[in-house]
Design brief:
CobW/HypB/UreG_nucleotide-bd; Rossmann fold; 6-stranded parallel β-sheet; CobW/HypB/UreG nucleotide-binding domain-containing protein; 6 strands; disordered N terminus; UreG; 6 helices; 23% helix; alpha/beta
C-alpha cells in the first residue's frame, strides 16, 4: 500500500505490529499549570469509546475535577451525545471537528486538541482532561506530547483476530480495553486469545 499520495499529512511507516514492551513511554512532566494531565481514548468506530467516556465522567465527576475534548470529522456527534446524557457540565466539554483523518488530529497535527486542552486548563484547572479521538483503525495512536496516558478500546464483535493484528493503537496504549465480551459466543470469538498475545498487553 503506497502512502505517498497527498492528503494533507504523512503516515508513519511500520514494519511490524509492534510490542507493548517497546512502546513509547509517557513524557514525564512536573508542571501541569498550562496543560492538565491528559488521558487519550482511541479505538475503531463503534468500539465503545464514547460510552466509556460517559461512564468515566459519571463515575468520577463527583470526586474529581475533570474535562473532556471530543473529536469528530465533520460533526459534533460524540460531544452532543455526552451533553444529552449529562456527562459533565456542557462548559467542561469541547468538540473538535478534524475535517480529515482522525489520527492526524491526535498525532501528526494535534494543535486543535492541544488548544482546547489548554483553554480548559486555564478556565477550570482540572485534575485531568479526557480526549476522545474520532473512530479510526489499528494504526491510529496518540502523540505522547498530547496524551499522558493512552487507553485503546476494541470490541469483541471484530473477532479474536483483532488483538493478534497489533498495530500502534493496540501496542502503544497503556491500557487496552476489550469491550462487548458478552457478544463473544455470537461472533465465534475466543476470549482466551487475550491471555497469550503481545507479552501481557491484553488486559
Amino acid at each position: 500500500h503506497d502512502h505517498s499520495h497527498e492528503h494533507g499529512h504523512t503516515h508513519e511507516v511500520m514494519t511490524s505490529p509492534g510490542l507493548w514492551t517497546s512502546r513509547d513511554k509517557p513524557i514525564h512532566r512536573a508542571d501541569f499549570a498550562e496543560r492538565a494531565f491528559t488521558v487519550g481514548i482511541g479505538g475503531p468506530v463503534g468500539s465503545g469509546k464514547t460510552a466509556l467516556v460517559l461512564a468515566l465522567c459519571k463515575y468520577l465527576r463527583d470526586s474529581c475535577n475533570i474535562c473532556v475534548v471530543t473529536n469528530d470529522i465533520f460533526t459534533k456527534e460524540d460531544w452532543e451525545f455526552l451533553v444529552k446524557n449529562k456527562a459533565l457540565d456542557e462548559k467542561r466539554m469541547r468538540a473538535v471537528e478534524t475535517g480529515g483523518c482522525p489520527h492526524a488530529a491526535i498525532r501528526e497535527d494535534f494543535s486543535l486538541n492541544m488548544e482546547e486542552v489548554k483553554q480548559l486548563t486555564k478556565q477550570f484547572h482540572p485534575e485531568f482532561v479526557i480526549i476522545e479521538s474520532g473512530g479510526d483503525n489499528l494504526a491510529a495512536n496518540y502523540s505522547r506530547e498530547l496524551a499522558d496516558y493512552i487507553i485503546y478500546v476494541i470490541d469483541v464483535a471484530g473477532g479474536d483476530k483483532v488483538p493478534r493484528k497489533g498495530g500502534p493503537g493496540i501496542t502503544q496504549s497503556d491500557l487496552l480495553v476489550i469491550n462487548k465480551t458478552d457478544l463473544a459466543d455470537a461472533v465465534g470469538a475466543d476470549l482466551k486469545v487475550k491471555y497469550n498475545t503481545h507479552q501481557g498487553l491484553i488486559l
